[in-house]
Specification:
- The protein is of the alpha/beta class.
- The protein has a single domain (3-121, 189-257), classed as Rossmann fold (3-Layer(aba) Sandwich).
- It has ten helices and eight strands.
Length: 259
Amino acid sequence: MPEFENNGAIIYYEQIGIGTPIVFTHGASWNHKQWGPQIEHFAKSHRVIVWDVRGHGYSSLPPGKVDSEDFSGDLIGLLDHLGIQQAVLCGLSMGGHISLQTAIRYPQRVMALILIGTPCSNTFNLYEMMAVPINRISTRFIAIPTLAKLQAQMLGKFNPKIKAYIEEAFAMIPHNNWVRLWDAVTRMESKHDLRKVHAPTLLLIGDHDVLTMRQQVFMHRNITASQLVVIPRAHHATNLDNPQAVNQAIDLFLSSLSQ
């Protein structure tokens, strides 16, 4: 299996195609298989790289408290491992926030950003300030199969076929690891650093994604070189709900970079 070691974790990745590199980073509790429709489409014209964030999929998680700074550090480690100086970064949800933080912390390594259903804060408003800590605690007491089924039911309304994938991906994470991961993910904060993003940025949001709609609009207002595109017939699993519309929007964005 293609993998490398970075700061105590073994990171799994796959790559296919040649051309400008695009690194796809999955959402929390999922894995690299999330990007199947994008791999098939973009590998025809680009060097496509997908990977499993530490603790997800086939990547390991060292013992102890998880530091969310390791997420962007692992992404840079992946680029270094593959000899890539600069890449387009695309991520959904947690994967988008990892990509965003990479652009903030390592701007010279990011050619462009594609952020799908991406939050920039876990304290965005009063509701989140109250709900996220409660959610963080409750996760300790709910079994992984139950969490997986709840998530699959919520996010599988537009594309019921993804329910099995969500449950399968979530099941790969031991409960103790998930508690540690979720604690780190829900403490990621970037809302005050958005002005530091200078890379051209495409924000994609599903028209039914109530989880991150407000934050995506806020990010569009605060990232100077950004554009916001709403994807029809899609919830938070936007790239799986309507892959054709997502791929088309990304194609247009990538074409504009070369003009």
